[in-house]
Amino acid sequence: MKRNLLLASLLLFFSCKKDDNQPAATNRNNSLAYVITDNKFNFSFFNTALTVTNFGNTFFEKGPYTVLIPDNNAFQQSGYSTEKDVAVEKGSVLNNMVKYHTLNGIWQLDKLPFRFNQPITTVSGAQLFVTHWVRNQDTIITINGTRVTALNMPASNGLIQVINTVLNPLVQDKLSDAVAAEPTLTYFNVALQQAGMKDLLRGVGPYTIFAPNNSAFIAAGFPTTDSVANTDPAVLKALLQFHILANRRFVYDYALSTDASGQSQQTMLNNSNTTVNLINNGDNGITIQGSGNTQPCQLVKSNVLTNNGVLHIIDNVLMENF
């Protein structure tokens, strides 16, 4: 009798034990997948990406996961006018996108330390950078320099954080690669080579580059890339160091770190200062100016993320007064 009871108990144990090779069950009626699908007014573009890639099935699993969801307006600002535009996007692009917006585990971003650009690894293996800071008595959270607009929406298997921009997954590993891949930075890339600074931008960093585009170099007196290549390397090195900052700075970081004057100074690699001005209190970006510039330099492209820093492209060469 005892032997039969023991066998029955063992059979009951193994029949109830979870199969580790199967997705763990969760409450489907309150799962991340359900919450995302149910919020069609805000999340239908992201849900379309999940449907096309079949990645949405992941959010029925136990997880837990934290999903960073760009709202519909964010998708439209990123060039996807309708859900159909998302549906016809390349599968590889959407797959990279949804994985870059997904984190393993529960991430209550408002519980992070008050610090700039704290690295977090996504399920794709790539990093993103979270800032938790106080501005004008308001607590602000950004991811890769973009605002988090709604925090900690709960689901049975995780959390949703809503953001106002579609995050761009890393395309280039290093800043050196990002510069070389950008067709408007041919002159700047030649200058880096001539100055022997390519290895610096292949290093650990982090660095922030304000790179003048080709038109900026031409306006500064370099009519061709050959004219750059024929310039004294020491001269180019001094010039380039005035365009590089020894930390990671997204555009909105300046809005968080600048006082009511709307202006701040930052020390570049050559130990000289540039002036950063907020546009519309930082909500419309920044300009940057050297002591020798008569007008501020405008950003024509910003927040290009790599593993060792951030690249911004500007429309003029930063100049110093000597």
Q: How much beta, percentage-wise?
A: 25-35%
Shape: elongated
Number of strands: 14
Major β-sheet, in short?
Answer: 7 strands, mixed
Count of alpha/pi helices: 12
Q: Structural class given helices, strands, pairing?
A: alpha+beta
CATH superfamily caption of the largest domain: FAS1 domain
Q: Provide the CATH top-level class of the largest domain.
A: Mainly Beta
Mean pLDDT: 91
Describe the structure.
This protein has 322 residues and is an alpha+beta fold. It folds into 2 domains: 22-163, FAS1 domain, CATH 2.30.180; 175-314, FAS1 domain, CATH 2.30.180. It has 12 helices and 14 strands. The strands form 2 sheets. Strands 2-1-7-6-5-4-3 form a 7-stranded mixed sheet. Strands 9-8-14-13-12-11-10 form a 7-stranded mixed sheet, sandwiched between helices. One of its GO terms (cellular component) is extracellular space. Residues 30-167, 172-318 form the FAS1 domain. This is Fasciclin.
